[in-house]
Amino acid sequence: MPSRLCPISRIAPVVRGLTLLALVLLCSGLTARAGVFYDASLGLDVGDDARIFLNITNDYYAPQATVATRIVQRCPRPENDFPVIMLLARASHRPPDAILQLWLTNRSWADIMFELNVPPSVLFVGLNRDPGPPYGKAWGRYKEHHGRGPLVISDRDVVELAKLQIASGYYHVNPYSVIAERQKGTKIERYAADRHRARQGEENGARGKGKRPNKEGGSENDSSKGHGHGHGEEHGNKPHGKPNGH
């Protein structure tokens, strides 16, 4: 009697197809979410570098599009508030709306962290020695802190350290390399925006090399199998994946 079980050789292509479909849907969902947030950021009174950093922050923490747009539009100073809210939401496992609501009560970021039981160490990940200015004072307070009460640290220091964590985490770089640029006078937003623009330029350049005009005035893919004039040049345009730590 013939077996009713489907041979593995028939199952494998189906599984591969479903996996590919899932990846396509995931990527399209990520693109849509990023687009919604970018549209929302266009209405904010912030500079280009700050807008790019807000979008990087959104991409790094990947909240729901409706949540991210609602939060960034309600922040009194989105370029400073949004990064801290996202960092604390992740660290405390609380909704970003709850973090924003606490911030709107005029409490300090240090008091909010203490209330949420978020350890100050989340601001100093990757730092094992005095980072120097502009983080040296906060580092000294952190090393002297013994867990009793909130860390004595200014809101500005919390903002700067949150941005440092996002930039180093998103681009997978040692925070001290970001600090070195910061000490040269480069703001975190500019550091991240410059890397973003360079990445976009590389991707656009890679796409541009994929086609060249033919004699009929159209274009042909350089990697085509012998069709057209001259030898094709094979190349790849590897997408940049999500950074670890989401």
How would you sum up this structure, described in words?
With 246 residues, this protein is an all-alpha fold. Helices cover 58% and strands 2% of the residues. It contains ten helices and two strands. A two-stranded antiparallel sheet has the order 1-2. Strand 1 and strand 2 form a beta hairpin. The longest helix is centred in the first third of the chain and has 34 residues. The radius of gyration is 24 Å and the shape is globular. The C terminus is likely disordered.
Query: Percent of residues in beta strands?
Result: under 5%
> What composes the largest sheet?
2 strands, antiparallel
Per DSSP E runs of 2 or more residues, the count of β-strands stands at 2
Distance between the termini: 52 Å
Number of helices: 10
Radius of gyration: 24 Å
Following the backbone from N to C, one meets helices and strands in this order, namely HHHHHHHHHHEE
Q: Helix/strand-derived class?
A: mainly alpha
Average pLDDT value? 78
Describe the global form. globular
Helix content: 55-70%
Uncertain regions: pLDDT < 50 for 5+ in a row? 14-32, 213-246
List the strand order in the largest sheet. 1-2
